[in-house]
Write a structure and sequence with these properties.
- By secondary structure, this protein is an alpha/beta fold.
- The protein contains four helices and eleven strands; from the N terminus they run E-H-E-E-E-E-E-H-E-E-E-E-E-H-H.
- It has one domain: 2-Layer Sandwich (BirA Bifunctional Protein, domain 2), CATH 3.30.930.
- Strands 1, 2, 6, 7, 8, 9, 10 and 11 form an eight-stranded mixed beta sheet that branches. Strands 4-3-5 form a three-stranded mixed beta sheet, with no helix packed on it.
- The protein is globular, with a radius of gyration of 16 Å.
Length: about 210
């Protein structure tokens, strides 16, 4: 099963990325194109999933895009690695929980290589980091959509993005937890993280 892998160097507009994924989904359905992994960054934008509430928007002046992915409100921007995919579950296990587990394991295993210990939370989707004082902050957000058993959207990992942008929203609708990036946790070279994520994701969706 060959999967096309794209890595965009320049920031990609959110609307363009979504259009491209939905186009690829239809092409996969017709067996015209390969499945896709697409790693990129977005220009700063706020997006909300199908379960968000208006009271999670603290600054009503923000540019908010409503999407069809699962989840609540989040922020994308420079310094955040976005890992999109269009994966055909008809060729694998038709099990959305298994796919979410594969995503969680991909992120956790990748960050372990950088000596960063993180965890998933069944009640609050995403990947979380607990600091020495016990504060729990989100380091990666997950949001997927499944159509005709083809899954798309993906996850985003905060590496060096501006965390002040999250003060305008209640990220993922969770009031008692914050958001953090990898540079705040441990300043080190993350140049190979894309390769690690791709390799771990490919392994986890096969197993």
């Amino acid at each position: 099963m060959t999967i096309e892998i794209k890595k965009s160097v320049k920031p990609v507009k959110y609307s363009f990325a979504i259009d491209e994924m939905e186009k690829r989904l239809e092409e996969i359905k017709l067996n015209k194109k390969k499945e896709l992994i697409w790693i990129l960054e977005h220009e700063q934008i706020y997006t909300c999933g199908t379960s968000f509430n208006e009271n999670e928007i603290l600054d009503k002046s923000i540019n908010l895009v409503k999407t069809n992915r699962g989840g609540k409100v989040t922020c994308h921007g420079p310094g955040q690695l976005v890992f999109y995919f269009v994966i055909d579950l008809n060729k694998r296990s038709k099990d959305i929980k298994k796919l979410v587990l594969a995503i969680e394991n991909t992120i956790i295993k990748t960050l372990n290589k950088y000596q960063i210990e993180t965890f998933a939370d069944r009640r609050n989707i995403g990947i979380w980091y607990k600091n020495k004082s016990g504060q729990i902050n989100k380091v990666a957000a997950i949001g997927i959509k499944v159509k005709k058993w083809i899954a798309y959207h993906g996850f985003a990992i905060n590496i060096s993005n501006n965390l002040n942008a999250y003060k305008k929203i209640i990220p993922c609708g969770i009031k008692n937890r914050g958001v953090i990036n990898l540079n705040k946790i441990k300043k080190q070279n993350y140049m190979t993280i894309k390769k690690e994520l791709i390799n771990n994701f490919l392994f986890n969706i096969r197993s």
